[in-house]
């Protein structure tokens, strides 16, 4: 079968929305590490992100940290408060509902397009991702499951052929992760593996209408799992980013 919308080289199966781990400027490394920690809920909403602590954690200047934080703030993942520093954003209940409303408008469109364009390589990547989700669920790795769940949605969007909507969805998915961190019910996993599997089966059949309807149902289910609970916790930034501090990829911009 002719392959269309192939996955870009350098993208990760775990997170196709993320950039490559090849040598990058320090501010890009910091941005990627903090973004990953937010999406995987290792940095919960409301966590303070002092520039001096992050600079020490990554072994770089505060200028480079500030550049990364400004980029995260542009994506509405953190809030930059005048004279009080940065914190991981805390979406309101109203914002949470609006994010799911936006995703219900966009994702069925993307999955319909993907159903007519997706190739064997992309389908195999999605199958591998769902398998990894099941493995993460079996070992109780909630952080990895959340990461892989977002990757599933990003990979479908990347196969749609609409880069503008796919990029926008990537931002919505990141912001949705904050919503899940705040409002999820502790006993419930945030994304149904069976629902991902059914969307994948519809894509494999090239059944655009079924894939779109299954995606809407899936998003409805994810939203229905939310409540208004969620307690903050302290995070040791030095320990969290210790691995990146020693990474050779840190270069001045």
UniProtKB/TrEMBL annotation:
Domain of life per record: Bacteria
Coiled coil: none
InterPro entries, sorted: GntR_C, TF_FadR/GntR_C, Tscrpt_reg_HTH_GntR, WH-like_DNA-bd_sf, WH_DNA-bd_sf
UniProt feature, compositional bias: Polar residues: 1-11
Matching Gene3D superfamilies: GntR ligand-binding domain-like (1.20.120.530), Winged helix-like DNA-binding domain superfamily/Winged helix DNA-binding domain (1.10.10.10)
Ranges where the record places region Disordered: 1-21
Any single Pfam family the record assigns to this protein: GntR
Residue ranges occupied by any HTH gntR-type domain in the UniProt entry: 24-91
PROSITE patterns per record: HTH_GNTR
Signal peptide, first to last residue: none
Keywords on record: DNA-binding, Transcription, Transcription regulation
SUPFAM superfamilies: GntR ligand-binding domain-like, Winged helix' DNA-binding domain
Name of protein: GntR family transcriptional regulator
Organism for this UniProt entry: Benzoatithermus flavus
């Amino acid at each position: 079968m002719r392959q269309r919308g192939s996955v870009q080289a350098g993208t990760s199966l775990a997170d196709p929305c993320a950039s490559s781990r090849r040598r990058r400027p320090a501010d890009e490394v910091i941005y990627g590490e903090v973004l990953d920690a937010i999406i995987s809920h290792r940095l919960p909403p409301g966590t303070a992100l002092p520039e001096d602590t992050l600079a020490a954690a990554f072994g770089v200047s505060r200028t480079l940290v500030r550049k990364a934080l400004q980029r995260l703030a542009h994506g509405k993942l953190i809030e930059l408060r005048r004279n009080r520093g940065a914190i991981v954003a805390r979406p309101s209940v109203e914002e949470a509902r609006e994010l799911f409303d936006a995703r219900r408008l966009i994702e069925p469109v993307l999955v319909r397009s993907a159903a007519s364009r997706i190739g064997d390589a992309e389908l195999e990547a999605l199958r591998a991702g769902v398998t990894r989700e099941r493995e993460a669920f079996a070992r109780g790795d909630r952080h990895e499951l959340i990461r892989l769940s977002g990757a599933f949605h990003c990979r479908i969007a990347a196969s749609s052929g609409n880069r503008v909507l796919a990029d926008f969805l990537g931002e919505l998915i990141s912001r949705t992760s904050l919503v899940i961190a705040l409002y999820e019910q502790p006993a419930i996993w945030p994304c149904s593996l069976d629902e991902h599997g059914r969307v994948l089966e519809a894509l494999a059949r090239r059944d655009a209408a079924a894939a779109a309807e299954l995606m809407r149902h899936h998003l409805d289910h994810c939203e229905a799992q939310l409540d208004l609970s969620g307690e903050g916790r302290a995070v040791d930034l030095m320990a969290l980013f210790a691995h990146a501090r020693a990474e050779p990829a840190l270069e001045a911009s």
